[in-house]
Amino acid sequence: MTKPMTDWTALNAGGGKGRLLDALEPLSSADKSAELTRYIEQQVAFIRRQGGADTDAGADRSFLAIGFDSLMSVELLYCLQRDLGRDIDPVALERETVDELAAGIVAEVWGQ
3-class DSSP state for residue 62? Predict the structure, then answer.
């Protein structure tokens, strides 16, 4: 039986600071990275829809290829910081893909 996919965009409606961190904390490193990847994919899609765009934002596609601009990156950073309940180094957003960003954040937050 597969686990239902969490709708992380629900946090955008006042889900509470740090809820993502709480959800990821008990997971293994691989599961943290996979779930954080899903979170970032959903946030990217949400942010792009807010801007009127609708492009596939798969984890292996570059942010540049999907038309993610600097303002969208700032919004993503805000979401990450709010939902993780901690500061994230803005340099993390220089990663090319969602997969790379998720792996970098797992390393930064959990030292893994």
Answer: strand
